[in-house]
Amino acid sequence: MQDDEDRYTRQRRLREIGDAGQTRIEAAAVTIAGGPGALVELVYLHRAGVGRATLDTLASAPAFPHAGAFRHPAAKRHAAASWRALRTLVELVRAPKGASSP
């Protein structure tokens, strides 16, 4: 990595994210529903640069619309967690400036 690059340089270069989107991701505080796949979701959000994540063991995760495409339960849990993390990141990047985090 060059001196002028940080961990999120590639994300910043994406037209869909840019500097403003990465700044919103880094400033975000998100809540993750506990349960199967919560750790996968947490790791993905952390690696994307989310500022703070809280695990809510009483919350239920949103339904995964693609669950029928997965035969094995472990693959289904992992895919659902990945989908939730990506959905959270998309909401953060698309949010207008000053909007609250999901």
Describe this protein's structure.
- With 102 residues, this protein is mainly alpha-helical.
- The protein has one domain (9-94).
- It contains four helices and two strands.
- It has helices at residues 9-13, 18-27, 38-48, 73-94, and strands at 29-33, 52-56.
- A two-stranded parallel sheet has the order 1-2.
- The radius of gyration is 15 Å and the shape is globular.
- The N and C termini lie far apart (32 Å).
- 22% of the residues are buried.
- The model has no long low-confidence stretch (mean pLDDT 89).
Q: Walk across the major sheet and give the strand order.
A: 1-2
Task: Round the mean pLDDT to the nearest integer and report it.
Answer: 89
Give the count of helical stretches.
4
Classification by helices and strands: mainly alpha
Question: What is the total domain count?
Answer: 1
Q: Approximately how much beta-strand content do the residues carry? A: 5-15%
Low-confidence stretches: none
Helix content: 40-55%
Q: How many angstroms does the end-to-end distance come to?
A: 32 Å
E-strand count:
2
Q: Indicate the radius of gyration in whole angstroms.
A: 15 Å
Helix/strand order, N-terminal first: HHEHEH
Please tell me what the overall shape is: globular
| Biggest sheet overview | 2 strands, parallel
Provide a compact summary of the structure:
With 102 residues, this protein is mostly helical. It has helices at residues 9-13, 18-27, 38-48, 73-94, and strands at residues 29-33, 52-56. It has a two-stranded parallel ribbon with strand order 1-2.
